[in-house]
Design goal:
The chain has 104 residues and is mainly alpha-helical. The protein has 4 helices and 3 strands.
Length: 104
Amino acid sequence: LIVGAAWGLIARITPFSLEPTGRYPYSMGLIHELNRLRLEPVSCCSISSPTWELDGVRCTSCHTLLLAESRPDLGRRRSDNILAALMRVILLDGRPFVDAAEEE
């Protein structure tokens, strides 16, 4: 219990980036970009429907990559047990499992 509390405290104190919103899963720039993709028509195909997949925002019709931002690992139902889910939350801290910028 003490090790888990210390791990959580250290993870919250040490910043991973110097950006002030870098500690949170969603930055304001990402929110505005996703909203722009949702509201403005996308010119990739005639029937465009952007969907946020694990590795980025893609059109469901033609599978064109519209935005190369990985989806944060929050709010998805999992089929694993509670112990594996707890370890994933502690280790990843809501960040994506794979980074879209590293894949390119």
